[in-house]
């Protein structure tokens, strides 16, 4: 395959992801807001995730047999995790939280080392894409999920 064909497929895939992320951003309060504690809160979250699932199916990111839990856990979860790995700059704070998970620490340390190399931000794996930036906008760049709690 030529590189222009691969780049074209990546742009189409990124456009599909951006369409799904637009729905997530529009329904951010329902998806990630405070839980109300009653059944209507469960239904609101389920309906919001089903809207995201419908968009993911519409843009052909998933098949019809997938439900909203797949979208919430697998699609959104993996996109968010990949973005956070690219975004971590202060690895020492993060690694101290996951001391037992040595394999994860080594993987993330390699990603962070790559990001700190001189040149063009450490290579393709550490450059924030338009999709990464949209995910960070949804999560919030100053969210404790991203920057940690700074507890000593």
What would a concise description of this structure say?
The protein is an all-alpha fold.
Structure write-up:
The chain has 152 residues and is mainly α. The chain has one domain. Helices cover 68% and strands 0% of the residues. α1 (3-26) packs antiparallel against α3 (39-58), α1 runs parallel beside α7 and α3 (39-58) packs across α4. The protein is globular and about 50 Å long. It starts with a helix and ends in a 5-residue tail after the last helix.
Structural class: mainly alpha
Q: Low-confidence parts lasting 5 or more residues at pLDDT below 50?
A: 89-104
Number of DSSP E strands:
0
Please trace the helix and strand order, writing H or E for each element: HHHHHHHH
**Beta-strand proportion:** under 5%
- What is the number of independent domains? 1
User: Percent range for helical residues?
Assistant: 55-70%
Lay out the secondary structure.
Blueprint lengths: L2 H24 L1 H5 L6 H20 L9 H20 L3 H7 L4 H14 L14 H10 L4 H4 L5
Features:
mainly alpha; 152 residues; 68% helix
């Amino acid at each position: 395959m030529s590189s222009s064909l691969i780049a074209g497929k990546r742009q189409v895939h990124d456009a599909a992801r951006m369409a799904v992320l637009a729905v997530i951003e529009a329904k951010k309060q329902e998806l990630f807001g405070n839980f109300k504690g009653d059944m209507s809160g469960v239904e609101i979250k389920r309906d919001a995730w089903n809207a995201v699932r419908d968009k993911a199916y519409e843009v052909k990111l998933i098949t019809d047999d997938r439900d909203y839990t797949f979208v919430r856990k697998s699609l959104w979860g993996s996109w968010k995790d990949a973005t956070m790995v690219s975004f971590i700059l202060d690895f020492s704070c993060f690694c101290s939280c996951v001391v037992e998970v040595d394999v994860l620490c080594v993987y993330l340390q390699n990603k962070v080392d790559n990001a700190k190399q001189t040149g063009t931000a450490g290579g393709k794996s550490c450059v924030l894409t338009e999709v990464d930036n949209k995910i960070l906008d949804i999560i919030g760049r100053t969210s404790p999920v991203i920057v940690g709690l700074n507890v000593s």
